[in-house]
Write a structure and sequence with these properties.
The complex is a heterodimer of chains A (285) and B (255). Chain A is built from eleven helices and four strands; from the N terminus they run ααβαββααααααααβ. Chain A has helices spanning 11-34, 37-48, 60-85, 123-151, 153-158, 167-178, 193-216, 219-224, 226-232, 235-263, 265-273, and strands at residues 54-56, 89-90, 104-105, 276-278. Chain B has a five-stranded mixed β-sheet. In chain B, strands 3, 4, 7, 8 and 9 form a five-stranded antiparallel β-sheet that branches. Chain B is elongated. Classes of the chains: A mainly alpha (285), B alpha+beta (255).
């Protein structure tokens, strides 16, 4: 095929031609190397298959805010563990200190050095990291919410539709995820319902809960908003909820990263950097 | 022949390990830089302004007796154990005097009996340690504001500095703390001489300690010896307004 046939601005078609040519060359080379007839057959198949589609997956704002968010979340999580280590016990109720019975204790010294910022025991430095990046995270999150509500990102991409939240649909999606079968074709252009629920849960449930329980640990803020203490049943309870919600965010990040790796890390990470995403070819389910 | 090209899996694993190592190492390096820590510390200003805006003159929550901690935990110094303190303690603090001086019209020397004779306030409040634990205690004492009114602050006075009898480390200059006048004249800010209806125990700061509700535990200076009204904090200790402040903690400890 002659590249000169395409008009200027037709990059997408060009990319597709380039992509299929490269695939063809790779498979041909492989077939020559192994001499396998199967490989030769697949060469023909790839050459006749429709070229994959490239879409613009994430807006510039989403991409920018995502990476600032990622940085902040990592830093507040790890500096949070540093603060936690100053008293690695969780209590429930209006008071809780070493003479009282804790709900849960994490070792004698809490989390290991690799999990905290800084890696050595330094509560004051941990607090500085925590509060600085908590403020940045708040500004970043409010920009995200403002942008996402105005642009329709929340309604269009994050809010599950009525048919998606049907238990049968959710169970079906869980089953597919467990078999590592991810959406292809048209279905891969949208978030699936498990993704939507995870993002929605982190953004609209865990994040506000973490902010509110964080503020409840502040003796100053408690004087201004005593109802927060009542709501969470005490400062030690708020601290326990703050910690638990943060651990759920850590779990979310773990699963999020695992899914990126399983779904094709290069394509997924590129889509969050440049915005371009190669739609996995195949029939959507 | 050794393979020079990494597989995608190796690349991912090694890449993320290297990235993680760089991040953690980088944060450690930055945590050793006083300039960077000062930069991070700029968030304290936001905490202070934001809280002063929303907290205003509000009162800290006061609890019923049923919420009292069975044992009120002591932290930091549990006994100053130096000659001066031990002498005062042996005399049951009869010779102890609280000196009020600095930018005041009327310097004072107050005995424990004189303080106890002044109008008092009793409150059941929550003590919040910077480490994360909380204890609830019943405090009685003289509102700091009424002592300052008696001493009559000069117009240029902006901070109240409290000096203590204890040292956390040998020759560290002694524990001290400071608060602004908003907190000094707050109705719940007490010079407390009693905890849970008993004279203050040695572990909790006998004979007198500060209660500045709405701030963290390290502001609640124990073993008080003197109070000074000053215009600025930079000439005291290392200049940050308190023992722990000089060691990297925030002067405004409302969060």
């Amino acid at each position: 095929m002659n590249i000169g046939e395409f008009a200027i601005g037709d990059e997408r078609a060009l990319c597709q031609v380039f992509y299929s040519s490269v695939r063809e060359l790779q498979v041909t080379a492989h077939a020559q190397e192994t001499g396998s007839t199967l490989a030769v057959a697949s060469t023909i198949m790839v050459a006749t298959m429709a070229p994959p589609e490239i879409i613009r997956r994430h807006s510039l704002a989403t991409r920018l805010l995502h990476w600032v968010n990622a940085l902040c979340v990592f830093l507040v999580l790890m500096s949070g563990l540093q603060i936690f280590n100053a008293d690695p016990h969780l209590y429930w109720g209006q008071f809780g200190a070493s003479p009282d019975k804790p709900l849960l204790s994490i070792g004698a010294h809490g989390f290991p050095p690799w999990a905290t910022i800084p890696s050595w025991q330094a509560l004051s430095a941990g607090r500085r990291w925590h509060f600085f990046f908590a403020w940045l995270l708040i500004f970043n999150s409010f920009t995200y919410l403002l942008f996402s509500f105005i642009s329709g990102h929340v309604r269009r991409d994050l809010l599950p539709t009525r048919s998606e939240i049907a238990p049968s649909h959710i169970l079906h999606d869980i089953w597919n995820h467990l078999r590592l079968r991810f959406p292809k074709g048209e279905a891969a252009k949208r978030y699936n319902v498990l993704q939507k629920l995870a993002y929605f849960g982190v953004i609209f449930v865990l994040a506000p809960l973490i902010l509110a329980t964080g503020l409840t640990m502040s003796p100053g803020f408690d004087a201004a908003c005593p109802w927060l203490v009542t709501l969470f049943g005490g400062r030690p309870s708020a601290r326990t909820i703050h910690f638990t919600a943060a651990m759920l965010v850590a779990l979310f990040i773990l699963v999020h990263l695992l899914m990126v790796v399983l779904a094709g890390p290069v394509n997924e990470i590129r889509s969050m950097i440049t915005g371009r995403y190669v739609v996995p070819p195949g029939k959507s389910r | 022949m050794k393979r020079l090209v990494w597989t995608r899996r190796q690349m991912l694993l090694r890449g993320s390990a290297a990235f993680g190592g760089l991040m953690v190492g980088g944060c450690d390096r930055l945590s050793q830089s006083p300039t960077f820590l000062r930069f991070l510390g700029s968030a304290e200003y936001l905490n202070y302004r934001a809280q002063r805006l929303v907290v205003g003159q509000s009162l800290a929550h006061e609890f019923p007796e049923t919420d009292l901690s069975p044992v009120f935990r002591s932290n930091g110094t549990s006994n100053p154990d130096n000659d001066r303190y031990n002498r005062l303690r042996a005399g049951n603090f009869a010779d102890w005097r609280l000196s009020v001086h600095g930018l005041v019209e009327q310097p004072l020397e107050l005995s424990l009996a004189q303080l106890r004779a002044m109008p008092s306030r009793t409150q059941i409040t929550r003590h919040d340690c910077v480490e994360g634990w909380s204890a609830i205690g019943k405090w009685s004492g003289v509102p700091l504001g009424s002592v300052l009114d008696r001493a009559q602050l000069n117009p240029e006075a902006r901070f109240i500095v409290l000096y203590c009898a204890d040292e956390l480390e040998r020759n560290d200059g002694g524990y001290y703390e400071s608060i602004d006048l908003v907190d000094a004249f707050h109705p719940q800010t007490l010079l407390a001489y009693s905890l849970n209806d008993k004279p203050l125990a040695i572990a909790n700061g006998a004979p007198l300690r500060l209660r500045v509700e709405r701030q963290l535990g390290y502001k609640q200076a124990k073993y008080l010896m003197r109070i000074e009204a000053v215009a600025q904090l930079k000439d005291i200790g290392a200049g940050k307004g308190g023992y722990w402040e000089d060691r990297g903690y925030e002067w405004y400890a409302g969060i």
